[in-house]
Amino acid sequence: MKSAFFLMLGCALVTPSAWADPSADEFATLRASVRELTALVQQLTTTVQAQQQRISQLEHAAPSPTQWPAPPSSAPSTARTFSGTNLSAFNPEIGVLADIVGQLSESGADGEGNDTLSARELELVFGHPIDPYSRLDVTATFSDVEAASLEEAYITHWGLPGEIKAQIGRLRPKVGKASALHRDSLETVDEPLVVTQYLGAEGLSRTGAQLSGFLPTPWTVVTHELTAGLMEGGVGEGGTLFGSTRRRPSFYTHLKNFWDVADTSNIELGATYLLGSKDADAAYEVNALGLDATLVHYVTPNNKLKWQNEAYLQERKESFSVAEDGTRTNFGKNPFGLYSLLDYRASPRTGVGGRFDYVEPIDLDPTTRVRDADIAWAGYLTFYQSEFARWRLQFKHTDFALGGDDNTIFAQATVVIGVHKHQLQ
């Protein structure tokens, strides 16, 4: 039908002289024109049908994405497609980490965790951007030896003046090195003694708020990051740095200095100051200074040597206790503790290292001490099966300030599935 129409149209456009004496060349030209017009109509018909189908699909789909303002340079990318075909954009990032630990101790005491094989910790990690300027991260922990707990639940906000980052909620404040890390990020099975005794069994984890940002300096060789915050009173489980009351807030600040010494070496130096209360009154009796230094050197691209050191020095006012019968016991006003860790990645799959611990107890009567501090030596061997699975064997010898010693063997398996990342680190 279309070919006949265009043929008639072409015939009508031909001049009467052409009808009177048509030539072969004129008929050939006419037929070629008709074929070109027919092909063009078919192409336009196909295009119109495709566009109509696309319009029908868009009419049944969700509204088009909202045009977000440009996020600050320090914020993570939060590009999403809010269409009916990509609802997964609303789902949070989810990860699960299992930390299985076996412990065999020489000590005859039947304490919790001694001579056991347990799922020491199982972490459920959730996180997702709220908008281009903020993000929510949550970490819930479960264990067969401890009660379930909320380890982290904090909001991170970017875009404050001066490229300052703000965080609020339950979090691990940037205090020192080891305390700010989760167990799966440590080089050893257990935390250093100075961390467990002063800050808590798993380090310092409290509800609070902190601001952090890089200091503007005219040089670029060394970068300086300053963090300051406040948190609810108290410390972690078993910690003795502050008292147990949560009513009086504690304050802290941390300065991190990072320096690329060479293409294969870098140094990180840090200083931490903490201020808090040791009891339930309104006074602040504890000042603590923390210093940390870390050297990382790549012997080869696959062999890395890390030497990490951290120390805490305290000034404690009213460092004594009074018993019910009026007996007064004086404690040290300036307890001190440190650790030194040496870790060597012998290959992409294996690592070996050791750690030395020295920590002076806070609430131990000097007259009852056999030695000034708890002292420990630990050695470990790590096998990295992959990025998501790790196996570790560790031996630790401890000499206690009260006298006696102990030898402990640890075996650890750490596996992770899904997305597992701690944004504060």
Helix content: 10-25%
* Count of runs of 4 or more consecutive helical residues: 4
- The strand order across the widest sheet is 1-2-3-4-5-6-7-8-9-10-11-14-15-16-17-18
The end-to-end span amounts to: 73 Å
Low-confidence stretches: 1-20, 64-68, 78-84
Overall geometry: elongated
Total number of distinct structural domains: 2
What is the H/E string? HHHEEEEEHEEEEEEEEEEEEE
Radius of gyration: 34 Å
User: Can you tell me the CATH topology of the largest domain?
Assistant: Porin
CATH class of the largest domain: Mainly Beta
CATH superfamily of the largest domain: Porin
- Mind describing the biggest β-sheet? 16 strands, antiparallel, barrel
Strand runs, count: 18
Q: What's the CATH architecture name of the largest domain?
A: Beta Barrel
Query: Class by helix and strand content?
Result: mainly beta
- Which percent band covers the strand fraction? over 45%
Average of per-residue pLDDT values = 83
Quick structural summary:
The chain has two domains: 2-60; 91-418, Porin (Beta Barrel), CATH 2.40.160. The chain is elongated, with a radius of gyration of 34 Å.
Protein described:
- It is a single chain.
- The strands form two sheets. Strands 1-2-3-4-5-6-7-8-9-10-11-14-15-16-17-18 form a 16-stranded antiparallel barrel. Strands 12-13 form a two-stranded antiparallel ribbon.
- It is mainly beta.
- Mean pLDDT is 83; it is low at 1-20, 64-68 and 78-84.
- The chain is elongated, with a radius of gyration of 34 Å.
- The chain has two domains: 2-60; 91-418, Porin.
- The protein starts with a helix and ends in a 7-residue tail after the last strand.
- Helices cover 14% and strands 46% of the residues.
